[in-house]
Amino acid sequence: MLRHCVLLCLLLIVCVPQMGVAQNSEPKEEALALFEDYAPTIEEEEGPILYKRPVQGDLTGDGAPDVLVEFGIGGGGTAVLYKQVAIYLNTDDGMQVVGGFEPEYCPSIDRIEGGTVYVEQLEACALPHPETVATHQYVFDSGRLKRRP
User: Fold this and answer.
1) How far apart are CA 82 and CA 74, in angstroms?
2) Cβ–Cβ < 8 Å for 98, 69
3) Which residue blocks in the chain are alpha helix, DSSP H?
4) How many CA atoms lie within 13 A of 53 on its CB side?
5) pLDDT, tens digit, for every residue of 18-62?
6) What is the DSSP letter of 65?
7) What is the pLDDT of residue 20?
């Protein structure tokens, strides 16, 4: 009986903390937490971050959900002047930022599906409700998003 109690206690000591970590580490939440840690550096160099939006999907084909964090930079008011995207891969060590994506247009990440990132090209970032003028497809390759031909 004592042996079973000791084994049960060991199991609880080892497994319960592990279960808590797995349940609390959603990829979107983990990527946003990492982004928040780095946000002051971005704001110091670029300007205020007016909004951020995570988009989750498998970029690498490994079955693990990766995350793109789209964020808008403002110029002192409430208008977004331009947008950028931070790329987070889901690794054995958790989410890792691997790079950024800064196209020459105002991007809006639509979705990640089948390893393809669908990005809407907006007419402008500063408009309240900009129209989509084109949709582009990208794949993750060699640490960055590359446009599909």
Assistant:
1) 7
2) no
3) 2-24, 27-46
4) 13
5) 333 333 469 999 999 999 999 999 999 999 999 999 999 999 999
6) P
7) 34
Residues 19, 11 contacting (CB under 8 angstroms):
no
Which pair of tokens denotes residue 97? 């930022």
Read off the tokens for 147.
């446009």
3-state helix, strand, coil split of the chain in percent (to 5) is 30, 45, 25
What 3-state class would DSSP assign to 129? coil
Assign 50 to helix, strand or coil.
strand
Instruction: Read off the amino acid at residue 56.
Output: Q
CA 100 to chain centre: 10
Structure tokens at 100: 């950024």
Tell the residue number behind the tokens 């403002």, with chain if given. 74
Which stretches of 25-103 are DSSP H helices? 27-46
Q: What does DSSP say about strands 49-57 and 66-74: parallel, antiparallel, or unpaired?
A: antiparallel
79 three-class SS: coil
Tokens 């809407």: give the residue.
Answer: 120
Q: What residue type is assigned to position 1 of the chain?
A: M
Q: Which residue has the tokens 């109690």?
A: 5
Please report where in the chains the tokens 């609390």 appear, as a residue: 24
